[in-house]
Amino acid sequence: MNMALQDRQKRGFKRFLRSFGYACQGLKHVIQNEQNMQIHLFVAAVTLMAAWTLSFSLTSWMILLLVIAGMFSMEIMNTAVERTVDMITDDYHPLAKRAKDIAAAAVFVYCLFAAIIGLMLFLPPLLELWVLL
């Protein structure tokens, strides 16, 4: 029996803890190897510093953190789709391209809505600050 299949059939706390290790390995790989994830991390860091500087409310913080976590999750899933398609075929295939394009489109759509939400969160305190100057 294949080792991965044996592991899936096991139950218990050790297996549960091991799954965190696998998740951390995946996260580390995406951060180290995916340029778009590195860009998302940089933008998130700048955004978080700006929110801190503007003294965001608790509600605004919760919304902002959910949007950032969603963006990271979308990029991770996009990478998983790309790797899976690459594993299936090295040759060009229109359906492989379509799968990758659709996964990238999901990230793009989320990014557009994240930007709109960002404007809704940041514009009021920025305008208030501007009026005070």
Automatic annotation (TrEMBL):
Substrate binds at R15, E75. ATP binds at R15, Y22, E34, E82, K100, D101. It is a multi-pass membrane protein. GO terms for biological process: phospholipid biosynthetic process. Its cofactor is Mg(2+). Its main location: membrane. One of its GO terms (molecular function) is ATP binding. Pfam families: DAGK_prokar. The chain crosses the membrane at residues 37-55, 61-81, 102-123. Belongs to the bacterial diacylglycerol kinase family. This is Diacylglycerol kinase. It comes from Alkalihalobacillus alcalophilus ATCC 27647 = CGMCC 1.3604.
